[in-house]
Amino acid sequence: MAVLDKDWSQHVVSAEEVARGRAFQELRDSILQQADPQRGEQVVDLGAGTGLLSLPVAEQVEQVWAIDISPAMCEYLAAKAASAQLENLRTAVASAVSLPLVDNSADLVVSNYCFHHLSDEDKVGALEEVRRILVPGGRLVFGDMMFRPGLAERRDRRLVAHKVRALARKGPRGLLRLIKNGARFATASWEKPARPEWWQEALVKVGYDDVAVEVLPHEGGIASARKPHS
Fold first, then answer.
1. Which pTM was predicted?
2. 41-69 pLDDT, tens digit each
3. Are residues 177 and 69 in the same domain?
4. How many domains is the chain partitioned into structurally?
5. What pLDDT shows up at residue 4?
6. Fewer Cβ within 10 Å of end Cβ, the chain: N or C?
7. Closest by alpha carbon to 144, among 205, 53, 60?
8. pLDDT, tens digit (0-9, with 9 covering 90-100), for 131-145
9. Which domain holds residue 169?
10. Mind listing the pLDDT tens digit for each residue in 86-119?
């Protein structure tokens, strides 16, 4: 087994702490309720991280492919699956824009807070890859940040103001994060979330049916769509 370096170990621990938070647990439940995984289905978790979606889904379906670009995340998730005796969960290190799965091989693709790491061009590429691997009639359900970190839209302004106030309440540590985030935004290294309207349009353009995008009270949203039967 590979030994994780310090930076990757801290990254995995941080991701696990976030996944165990109440907000992400509630988001997970909402995604799974909409996805409605069934016995006998082949499921792909895109950007699986430490298994927020993969682990509960594996208890309900035939097979889960947990895909993540981080070898450390995959290693960590594989260990958790083994400890839970989930023999139907397999991890694979891969990018969302190049999935190591054959055409028409998945009944359901789920994802949580993966797409905002991608450029808009790569978001579209990932949607095309998901459509490729889904069987006709297969479903895509994902949660993600759904706002632009700017001030043009009222919802964006409200969300940015909320984040600033939340960090400011944390004292010096929060102010340091504000400075770092401001620098990331100024240098275009900020995460790259898209607004709900962008997702609605992109999913339709890629060729999905039954497209729906739900805006949540916080920064996030949940989108669902289906690959056409023909």
1. 0.80
2. 999 999 999 999 999 999 999 999 999 99
3. no
4. 2
5. 45
6. C
7. 53
8. 999 999 999 999 998
9. 154-185
10. 999 999 999 999 999 999 999 999 999 999 999 9
| Burial tier of 121 (Cβ tally within 10 Å: 0-12, 13-18, 19+) | exposed
**Given strand 42-46, what is the order of strands in its sheet?**
89-93, 63-68, 42-46, 106-112, 134-145, 220-226, 209-215
Question: Three-state DSSP class for 35?
Answer: helix
Residues 77 and 169 in one domain: no
Beta-carbon count within 10 A of 224 CB:
19
First-to-final CA distance of the chain = 44
Dihedral sign (CA 227, 208, 108, 8)? positive
129, 146, 199, 205 from 160: Cα distances, Å: 32, 12, 20, 29
| 91 and 159 assigned to the same domain | no
CB 192 within 8 A of CB 119: yes
Residue 162 lies in a domain: yes
